[in-house]
């Protein structure tokens, strides 16, 4: 598909969108802009509108709760919740390692404790143990009212970063 065909299909789609769908489409466009302008390093971070904050052996990520991340019950999709936990713990893992090393998720366990509702979610990732080959992390995800919606642990395998 060339750019002219893409423009035509996009204009046809825009003409068919309801007002709510128009708002959702704008969220997708903003995500593409954030990735294109290198405000976000990944498409998933751009789509989630993830905002990170460093702490001592801790990393905090906050995302808005938009229609793009909700399931058919109008609560945050469990897979998005797991992605938020994995992303926060993975970012912390990378921050704790020297530049020539990276970390990849080798195991993730998540327990859901409440529905993801409210205007935003905050994930707090912490280091439990740092070994020579693995990192053990935990994260807690809270909704706007402070209620815990999920608790997760993960193991990250330490690898050499590709040059």
UniProtKB/TrEMBL annotation:
Keyword Hydrolase: yes
Residue ranges occupied by any Thioesterase domain in the UniProt entry: 75-149
Keywords: Hydrolase
GO molecular function: hydrolase activity
SUPFAM superfamilies: Thioesterase/thiol ester dehydrase-isomerase
InterPro entries noted in UniProt: HotDog_dom_sf, PAAI_dom, PTE-AB_protein, Thioestr_dom
Coiled coil segments of this chain: none
Top-rank lineage group of the source organism: Bacteria
A family per Pfam: 4HBT
Enzyme nomenclature, EC number: 3.1.2.-
CDD domains cross-referenced by the UniProt entry: PaaI_thioesterase
Protein name (Swiss-Prot/TrEMBL): PaaI family thioesterase
Organism per entry: Metabacillus sediminis
